[in-house]
Amino acid sequence: MGLNIPLLMQNKIPEGFETDDKLDVGLRPDEPEENDYEEIPIDQFGLAMLRGMGWQEGQGIGKNNKAVAPVNAVLRPKGLGLGADRSQAAQLNDSKKGSGKNDNEEALVLKKGAYCVLLKGANKDMYGIIEGLDEDNARVMVKLTLGGNMVTQSQYAIRLVDSHDYKKYSKYLNKVKADKYKEEEERKKEKDRKRERHHKSKRDKHRDEDSDHDSKHYEEDNRQPSSDSRKRKHDRLDDYADKPKISQNGNSRSEPLWIKPQIRVRIISKDYKKGRYYNTKVNVIDVLSLDNCVCQTDDGKVLEEISQSELETVIPKQENAHVLIVSGKQKGQLARIMKKDKSRYIATLQLLRDRDEVINIDFDKICEYSGNIDEEYDY
């Protein structure tokens, strides 16, 4: 295997031909002139120096022959300073490449006579026609459609539009406000649709459970005359549950009303008060209708006009806590938690009206009672 001798070593003057006192210039090449430098690009000159030092393209250098990827500088487009948004420049480049689209689609090209809309500045969202280009400074001269004023703008602060959009929106004074209004209306409609779907699912869930509640409830009261000695104000909760509820518009609602005063619930709506009280536990003070509940936070702040669909029940963490049954045939009765099975979401309750009766019930049918239990029953 032959030895690779660098080019500079190959051109070295052999020993004995020269001394420190005597130099033979005839052994050396002629001095380069200015024309020689002009014929050879500077990058080729640098590559020649590297090759003279033993460098070969594609091979690593150093002890480990490790190839290092060069850092290629990304040139910033004209008119864009540090921190500028390059997305506008990319959009402009894409519009320039759009000349090869279908014949039905109009190509968006930055040129004199093109239609555009201003994205920034005092004339934001106004339409105009490009009257001139300053390519050195990356600016355009635009004649506004409304008023006819001539303004200069960075070419990255405009958006090219086709003739269809220009004819449709160029003389639209409040297009942005109108679009925002339409979006807000669409959000309200979507919110109403979600609420209606939620109400429908609630009605389907509780329809079978509450259909025979009234008759069975009074039959149990007649079969248990001995429990009258323990009952105090509990009938008040039953009467409240049996009353037909009227919504704010005056029409009766078929959706079962499980929310009642003196229970602790959680706000699950991200829309109420812009989500300020999302996932917050509150105490129900009064229930005016399905769509108007009055609650109070732990720090004493009163919240009004809360819909039942924006609330969910709360299960006490501690054992022996008191709950109110909000659904099922025992709806309206107070009970004490004896055991909780979190894996099956079932609680074992002792009814306070008849302490000999113990039932198993789903977590969804009970809610933490926040009232004074001593006022309801004597112990």
UniProtKB/TrEMBL annotation:
SMART domains: G_patch, KOW. Its main location: nucleus. It is found in: Nucleus. It comes from the Eukaryota. PROSITE patterns: G_PATCH. Residues 180-254 are annotated as: Disordered. Residues 42-104 form the G-patch domain. Signal peptide: none annotated. Residues 180-189, 206-223, 235-245 have a biased composition (Basic and acidic residues). GO terms for biological process: mRNA splicing, via spliceosome. One of its GO terms (molecular function) is nucleic acid binding. Keywords: Nucleus, Repeat. Pfam families: G-patch_2 (PF12656), GPKOW_C (PF25088). One of its GO terms (cellular component) is spliceosomal complex. Residues 190-205 have a biased composition (Basic residues). The keyword RNA-binding does not apply. Belongs to the MOS2 family. This is G-patch domain-containing protein.
